[in-house]
Structures are given as C-alpha cells and as structure tokens.
Amino acid sequence: MKKKVVVGMSGGVDSSVAAWLLQEQGYEVIGVTMQIWQEEDSCVSTENGGCCGLSAVEDARRVAGLLGIPYYVMNFKKEFRAQVMDYFVRAYQEGRTPNPCIACNRYVKWESLLRRSLEIGADYIATGHYARIGRTREGRYAVCNSVTAAKDQTYALYSLTQEQLAHTLMPVGAYTKEEIRAIAARIGLAVADKPDSQEICFIPDHDYGRFIEADSGKKSEPGNFVTMDGRVLGRHKGIIHYTVGQRKGLGLAMGRPVFVTQIRPQTNEVVIGEAQDVWADRLECGNLNFMAFADLEQPRRVLAKIRYSHAGAPATIRRIAADRIICEFDEPVRAVTPGQAAVFYDEEGRVACGGEILN
C-alpha cells in the first residue's frame, strides 16, 4: 500500500515541485493550502509572491489539477492568529525582535497541519523547504543543511520536535533553486517563474510599526534615546520601531553613524552606541529545543547562527540552567538580538539544538 503524504502547498514553485517529486517517488499525494490570512480580501499576493492569499489558493489548485492529486484548503486562521500574529505583536511591545516564520513552522505548519493530516490517515506531511532530514547514530531525527547554502532554510526549522520530524518529508532539500525551477518548467507548471515570497506574509507593506499599532489598538509611546550611561540624546517614536543593530531611521543628528545597542521596555528607552558597541562575544538563550542530541551534558563546539541571513560563527555552548544555554563565540559577532533564534549546528551540518536569544 502506498504511503500517504499531505503536501503543504503555498502556490509557489518549491511546494509545487515537492508534490510532483513525492508523486514520482510513489507516494499517494494530497495537496493542502493552509488558510491563515485573517481577511482574505486585504491580502496582497501575486505581485509580492505572497503565500497566504487567494492567488496562492488558485495557483495551488491549478498545480494539483495538473498533477491529478486531491486538493483541499484547511482553515488555520485561529492557530495563526494566536501562535504567530499575537506573538509577533507582543514580542515587539516587549522590546524583542521576533521571527514569526519560526513560530509558524512550529505551531501551524507542523503542529496543527500534522495533527489534522494524521487524523485523515496520512503518514507524513511535506513542505517545499530547502532542508533535509537525517538520523544520527543514536537514532534521533535532525534537520540537515540542504545542498544549496544560498537557499538553506534549516535555521527556521530548529524548533521542530522528534515526533514532527518522524512524520515529515522535505524532498526539495536535495536540489538547488535553479534545478527546482527547471523541473517546474519541464513538467509544465505555470508557477515555474513565480517570485519567491518576501518578508512577512501578514505585513505586505513591511511597515511593522503601523501593523502592530493597528492590530493591538495601542499606540507605542515615545521615549528617550539614551547612551549606555543614561545620557539623553533625543526622543524616539516608540520601541516597536527599533531593533538591535539598527542605524537608519533613528532621526538623530550625531555627526557620525550610531546604532541601537539595547531596547529597555521597562523604562521605554532605546540605547544608542557606537559601531563597536553592537558586537558581542556571547549570548544566552532559552526556550530550548534539542534535535541532533537529546541534551547538553557537557560543552560542545558548534557553528552558531544568530539570524536567518547569518553565515554562522564558530562557538562553544554549555548548559547553565534547566532551560538556558550560554554561547561563547570564538570571535565577536554583530547585533545579537533578543527575540531572534540562536541555532547551533554540529560538525556534520545538522541542527543540534537552538533557542530564543534572551540578551
């Protein structure tokens, strides 16, 4: 009997080709688009490569029709609102810089979609992520680097559980983006040249501050720009508009480049410093998830990534509390940002563990 797999189809080229690859590998494939947008008629989609609007459904349905596979739209608006949008707003209001794609992967694309897929008799779910799943010698599942560093998406998948990985397929991770587009063109998919999704799907105009104030119904209060020792430099327009490492858009006439080095929600202050003040040789993270190994019993050497676009830096990690890791870098890294993820890779390119940056 064929194994059954539900493919999360965003209407883009990657998930579309993922469905075809799995079909070619002999799986019984079902296409599903996750309806997550809160107000469908306000979603800017096709021209921005959106992954959650009406055009995504239309594109995915056309692909499913071409492949001859069943296709459904499943409503995950409630889960997306609670686990992604509310989390995003709350984090910025607390002076952190969240990564909503990580939350969406963990709690919507996997937890909710997987649960519903298993309920309808599927054996696996699959996505179009550029990543692979491997097993360690101890039998643990781990997300592994894709064959293309340029598109690698393992950073955003560090929080997946062993149970979720055991029921996940990622066929696209064995290909480059160019190869995926070529396959799409060869099999006649209209989405072969569709642009990739950009930025955050629920903020199509990229104005985070406007969205947060409108969504929460709460105006972000202006406060002081200060130096590390408390000297007032000017007024900011609300902490939700700033992130660690930011240089542009500060509105400070200092005569030289200055940078956000810290956000203090308790006092509504944004700390300003020089270029060298943005560099750090360590960080602490919590909300841990272990993947390639079950625990951190002794210090380990890793490659640490502190944001999606970070190439990674050699470091040593060690446990300092039940849900706390300290990461010490061989060389200082720029803009360690609370709220972002710190993801640690082992020597074989597998996600070892990760967590949320706390300081």
Task: Give an overview in words.
By secondary structure, the protein is of the alpha/beta class. The chain has 7 helices and 17 strands. It has helices at residues 13-24, 54-67, 77-93, 100-119, 162-166, 177-186, 208-216, and strands at residues 4-8, 28-35, 71-75, 124-126, 132-135, 141-144, 168-169, 223-226, 232-236, 259-264, 269-273, 279-290, 300-305, 313-321, 324-334, 341-345, 351-357. Strands 12-15-14-13-16-17 form a 6-stranded antiparallel barrel. A 5-stranded parallel β-sheet has the order 3-2-1-4-7, with helices on both faces. The chain has a 4-stranded mixed β-sheet with strand order 9-8-11-10, with no helix packed on it. The chain is globular, with a radius of gyration of 21 Å. The model is unreliable at 40-49 (pLDDT under 50).
As laid out across the biggest beta sheet, the strand order is 12-15-14-13-16-17
Report the structural category.
alpha/beta
Main pleated sheet: 6 strands, antiparallel, barrel
Number of helices: 7
Helical percentage: 10-25%
Tell the overall outline: globular
CA-CA gap between termini: 51 Å
DSSP strand content: 25-35%
